[in-house]
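Q: Sequence in, structure out?
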Amino acid sequence: MDNIDMKAIQWFPGHMAKTRRAIMANLKLVDAVAELIDARTPMSSRNPEIDSMMALKPRIVLLNKCDLADSGATSAWINYLKNKNVTALAIDCKSGKGINKLLPTLKATVLNELMEKREKNGMSGAPVRLMILGIPNVGKSSLINRLAGGKRARVEDRPGVTRTKQWVKLKDNTELLDMPGVLWPKFEDQSAAVRLAFTGAISDDILDIETLAMKLLAFLAESYPHALFERYKIELEDTDNGLSLLEKVGKKRGMVISGGEINTERAAVTVLDEFRSGKLGRITLELPGVK
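A: Exactly. Output:
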């Protein structure tokens, strides 16, 4: 992915250091960790340091927003994680898809040894305690609310709403620990930042939205050309670039201003909104082993 001017998109080492300390201090309170990532950006929507932090703690990875992601790509990611001895599930907190598999899979697979040990020692009634981790805006609060059957955690469509840790008790003798959403990914290259910007995980207020939309259109033209044709009825040409594609979208949508000029800012907002809402189809922005 080409370089893009995103000077404001940086890793926050101060936040990360504080979060790391909080996670390490609370790990002893839980039996396992559920790491929530975005199914459209499975690698970019996680902090690579979590592997070392979770080295001695059972973990399950949840690919949220799977209804917006390419199903074939999601299966590839689940297999990729399985090959690394990590149990993974595809879920969608908005529709509820896959949520009912989480706790049974956790107890039968990730915590099977612990559950057998408790049964043997007459402690089968002890609650299972699970820490929920993920970067801002990945859907942690929505997941907790789904599992709890109601609004237990505050949900807003902007990054970093969860400010302090909170325990949530479920009906099936499970307790969830929600950690603050400041586990920022480490932007070792700006491609990860760009992918997160595509999904809205990074606020549009700090970006050039037209440049971002052009980057997205260029990616779609290469990886999902049918999505552009089906949604915007535009014909792709070998000479097309992000700008020409954005202008084609604007023209098709009648976004023409005085002098016949295309309102590319309005077109950019449309493209990003329609991608994020799934109107362009099920799209995954990165594949296992591909940078």
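The radius of gyration is 21 Å.
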